[in-house]
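Lab notebook page, bench 4
Experiment: in silico fold of construct C2
Operator: M.H.
Input chain length: 415 residues
Purpose: comparison with the prior construct
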Amino acid sequence: MAFSFLFPDVGEGLHEARIVEWLVAAGDTVIEDQPLVKVETDKAVVEIPAPRAGAILRLAADVDAIIHVGEELVLIGEAGESPAAEAPASTSPASPEVVPESQPQEAAVVPARKGRRPPATPKTRALARKLGVDLYGISGSGAGGRITDEDVRKAAEGGAPSSEDQPPSAPGKASTAFHEPGSVERIPISHLRKVIAGAMRSSKQISAHVTHVDEADVTPLLEAYRSIKPQIEASGDIKFSLLPFFVKALVQALKEFPIFNASVDEEAGEILIKHFYNIGIAVDTPEGLIVPVIRDADRKNMVEIASEISDLAERARSRSLTLDEIRGGSCTITNIGPLGGVFATPIINQPELAIIGLHTIKKRPVVIEDEIVIRQMMYLSISFDHRWIDGAEAARFMSAFVRLVSNPSLLMARL
């Protein structure tokens, strides 16, 4: 009996993924847990294993296609069994033998359409079938154009805008300016860039962003760093940077001001103070920004943190991180300094409440005890959600953070 394996939610909140590489072909025999396909999800490339042994009767999507949670991934059956009797997943209902009991079945065959299948969850598709709504005629209002239950209900009442009626300057979508033929180059937007774009827009819509900037004299920190760097790098295959100092300083500041190591459950009306310190490190890759997580940073020394940062950054650039390695952060650091600039206003990595920006270190004249001296100075910024955190608290937090990075002896004493 044929079994239709539906694309699973391999991570919390996942809606879709891009097919990167098929590891099997139609006609192959597989065993349970054998990798079937590589898919690109929320900034990670992961393998999807076979849920059972059998013969691959059909691959339901091509390489580079977008597949949504709940859609057929592969059809698995007995060797020699033909998939010809099975209706294509994107154009007609699967037979009772293929669809699990928990999956709603379509009342009638839907004619094949041209173009990408409308993005919607299985629950929304079931609602559309119940109300007799054609999803191909709806322009979704959800993230990335996803059709929501509300869109379907409005369409059933005759109030939802169709894809043909959608105005050219719809909210959230930039209009296409006129240009001379051949004067522009069209570059396909990658799946990762779409994920980043959706996350950035969502964060700006969710949080009330405010950025506070402070300044630190990191002359003593650089002296300490330059003193221990050769010794650490001589003892093993490790590249030691300044970043571990900032990670440890951040952890200490978060312990003093726990609201910055929190998230909010608005539905329950609760602030979730986290008693773990999983620090996200923004990594610049050729394909876009990825934020792997240093877990339990409070329990690791700076050498361990340096080694982990190097490993995670390398695998972020090769797209070989696991989903667990990019999720579960409690606060994030973005190190913009090596790229130049004065300071920036980073966007919060949801569902966190704050993100720290590290900026360029430059020699500048400063006044110390009425004397003008040259010191290594650095701007530090924090973007925070002003809905839950007051500006005064952010100023106090940054004062504590600056005190630690300006005084490495004090930082060491508190590790």
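Observations: The chain has two domains: 3-117, 194-414. The two ends are 60 Å apart (CA to CA).
Next step: discuss at group meeting.
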